[in-house]
Amino acid sequence: MPLADKLKPPPDRLYGRARGHTLRARQAELLLHLLPRLRWPDQGFPPTIDDIWLEVGAGSFEHAETIANQNPTIGLIACEVFENGIASLLSRLAPVG
Ligand SMILES: C[S@@+](CC[C@H](N)C(=O)[O-])C[C@H]1O[C@@H](n2cnc3c(N)ncnc32)[C@H](O)[C@@H]1O
Fold first, then answer.
1. Ligand 1 and 60: CB distance under 6 A
2. Mutation test of ligand 1: which of 80, 84, 86 has the most ligand atoms closer than 8 Å to its C-beta?
């Protein structure tokens, strides 16, 4: 039997709620229309950055925003699995009005 077949799959770990609150209409619109239009810049981070930091589980991205503002010479990659968190980020990127 190949080794890969003997290994147990990794546990499905999700810390926190598996399901979020129902999205508001505007949040659903932003996920549907704004998110697909956002892309990783072709050039990546500028060569002037000192370091690259990664935040896994960025929630609503408030912490990531604070870290980015306090550390303008780093490149920050912030990840979130919950669509509520992504919707919260999109709401701040596209304020009403
Ligand atoms: C307690 S919140 C922290 C949010 C943010 N880092 C802060 O300090 O304000 C934890 C976050 O981790 C995310 N998360 C949970 N399980 C995860 C997993 N397996 N991989 C990546 N993110 C996960 C949750 O969706 C949640 O947004």
1. no
2. 80
